[in-house]
Design goal:
The protein is of the alpha/beta class. It contains four helices and seven strands; from the N terminus they run βαββααββαββ.
Length: about 120
């Protein structure tokens, strides 16, 4: 007797986890980091995400996420040469924010965003 074994990476988005669990009719799925099980995701866990009714919990969650983004924003590197702004560093959301702000600054002619200024840059959309 053999059955497929389904697992989730520890950083899998809740929506992707729910879709997989629904698709394969699973009540719970192990969460793994490499080849180690680091937890179990159950339907109940996913329901808690959408059925939150405590505003204080929601506010605390949002504030924690904002604090994490602010920490990442402080690690961004911004360079300017001949009106061309290059933004690099951790945090895609932070880079997008800085790219948007850079476009509003008079004199900016072009904006680049990438994970590493030393590496190949991709033009911001």
């Amino acid at each position: 007797m053999s059955k497929s074994v389904y697992t989730l990476a520890q950083d899998t988005d809740a929506t992707a986890a729910a879709r997989m669990m629904l698709r394969h009719h699973l009540k719970s799925v192990p969460a793994v980091a490499g080849d180690r099980v680091v937890g179990i995701v159950a339907r109940r866990d996913l329901l808690r995400l959408v059925a939150r009714d405590d505003d204080d919990d929601i506010r605390a969650d949002l504030q924690a996420r904002l604090a994490a983004e602010l920490e990442l924003l402080q690690r961004l590197r911004v360079e300017v040469a001949d009106g061309v702004v290059s933004v690099a560093g951790a945090g895609e959301l932070g880079r997008e924010l800085v790219v948007g702000l850079a476009r509003t600054v008079p004199g900016v002619v072009e904006v680049h965003s990438g994970d590493d200024l030393a590496g190949p840059e991709r033009r911001a959309r």
